[in-house]
Amino acid sequence: MSLLRVASRSLLLKARPSPALFGAAHATATRTTAANVRYLFLSPICHAGRPKIYTKTGDKGTSALFTGERRPKDDEVFEALGTNDELASAIGLAREFCIDQPSPDLSHMILQLEQIQCLLQDIGSNIATPRDSSAATAARLARTEFDADGQHVQDLEQWIDRMDQELPPLTSFILPSGGKAAASLHIARTTCRRTERRVAPMAQEHRVDQSVAIYLNRLSDYLFTCARYAAMKGGFKEVAYKKPRPPRAKRGTKASAPSSSNDEDV
Prior knowledge:
Elements: H1 3-12, H2 19-30, H3 34-42, E1 62-64, E2 70-72, H4 76-100, H5 107-127, H6 138-143, H7 151-164, H8 180-204, H9 210-233
Antiparallel strand pairs: 1-2
C-alpha cells in the first residue's frame, strides 16, 4: 500500500496519523523531486477532514454565541468571554512557573490549576449562552448550567483552608512578589478580579448564572492563597508594603517651589 493511500485511509477513519507515518513521509520526501515534495505535503488528501483554523465569519465584526445568534464583537458578552480567556491563559502561565519551581509540595496545586482551567471553559459556555436570550433553549440552558450545587466553590474553599493552615498569618499588605510562580499567580488573581467585574453586572441581570460570579469571587481568594503558598514553598520572601516617606531636605536648604513646567501636575 502506497504512502498516500495509507494517509488517505487514516484520515477517512478519522484517526490521527501515527508518528511513524510522518517519519516515512519525511524520508520519502527527501528522496523525491521538488515537485513531488510539493504534491506530498500540499495535496488536498493531507488536509481532508481537518477543519481550518480560520472561518472568516467574523470578518464583518460579529461573532456567534452558543445560541446561534450573532452580536458585535464589542458586545459585553464577548468582553466577558475575552477576559475569561485571559484568566485561563494567566493561570496557564502561572501553572508552568509552578512546574518549573523545584518544590514537590506544589504538585497538588498544579493539578488544581489545571482543573480550574477546564472549569473556566465551562464558565465560558455559560457566558456564551445568555440566560435571558429567546434563542437559548431549555436544553442549551441545562447543558451550560454551571456549579448548580456549589460543589466547585466548596472545593476552592477547602483548598484555601488547607494551604492557609501552613501559611504564616498576614500582618500587613504584601506586594506581588515571592518568586516567578508567586508573582504570576498574583497576575492571575488580578485578572480574575477583572473577569469578575465583567461578569457581575450580567449575573445581577440574570444573563449569567449567579454561581459563575460566586465562583470567580472565590477563585481570586484561592489564587491569592496560592501565591503566598508558592512563595513559602519556594523559600522566597514576600515583600511587605511600607509607606514611602518623602525625602528629607538637607539642613540649611529650603524646598524649592515647583517650576512652571510642572504646573499640570499640581
